[in-house]
Amino acid sequence: MPEGARPPVAPAAEPALVEPGPAARVPGEGAGGAEVDGAAETGEVPAPPPRVDAGKSERSPKDMAISLLVLLIPIALLLAFYRGFLGGDEPITVDPAPAVESARAANAFPVAVPADLGDGWRTVSANFQTVEGGSTLRLGYLTPEGRGAQLVQSNVPAERLLPTELTDQGQPQGQTDLGGRTWQRYTARGNEQALVLLEPNRTVIVVGDARDNELRHLATSLR
Questions:
Q1: Domains annotated on the chain, with CATH
Q2: Average pLDDT over residues 118-136
Q3: Which of 36, 43, 108, 140 has the smallest C-beta neighbourhood within 10 Å, fewest atoms?
């Protein structure tokens, strides 16, 4: 190369040509950026939402009343059968003999039982028990008027027995003669009243919400 001459410069490399590809598409857009429905792409048409039948979803008051009536009719029939044929309203009666025999076998006090009470009187409870300080026989009755009366016989001291049977509401109200014996009249719990016979070795109490004439009848029937 002659002195002072410049070396030849290589020509600049030309940029490679890149063939443009298809433009990236945003999901849901068409070729020109327009939005495309998914159903149009797949060719499927979505099913319409199910219709709600207002007549089936809401029951009228009349329909509800009919349904309730259908349920109540069998119950009413069963209740009528229970009361009419099975005696559902009748009180459960008991035999007082075992309790009376136990009291007599204990020989703790003279035992008296009602005699000739008449029709309509029903024995609904009978119990004999020995407690600290003595023994007690209790017989419960339902009077012809549907009221309650109880016959209590005991050798527990009266000062302990009366507060237990009559509660602290028991207050003496005077005397009355029944069947040749002098009974003490007492108030008792609630609307109850009592007749009390005090004897040396026994106390007899006739108490309940029965009418006064029914309590007197029970007291005079003791034999």
A1: 64-91 (no CATH), 97-220 (3.30.200.100)
A2: 94
A3: 43
pLDDT of 5-33, one tens digit each?
555 555 555 545 545 554 445 444 454 44
Do 98 and 106 touch, CB atoms closer than 8 A? no
* CA atoms 161, 167, 169, 175: torsion sign: negative
User: Can you say whether the dihedral through the CA atoms of 208, 213, 216, 222 is positive or negative?
Assistant: negative
Q: Hey, is 175 helix, strand or coil?
A: strand
What would the pLDDT profile of 111-120 be if each residue is shown by its tens digit?
999 998 999 9
Task: Return d(Cα 96, Cα 122) in angstroms, integer.
Answer: 10
Q: What is the pTM of this model?
A: 0.63
Which residue type is seen at 190? G
Place of tokens 């998914």: 38
Distance, C-alpha 80 to centroid of its chain? 22
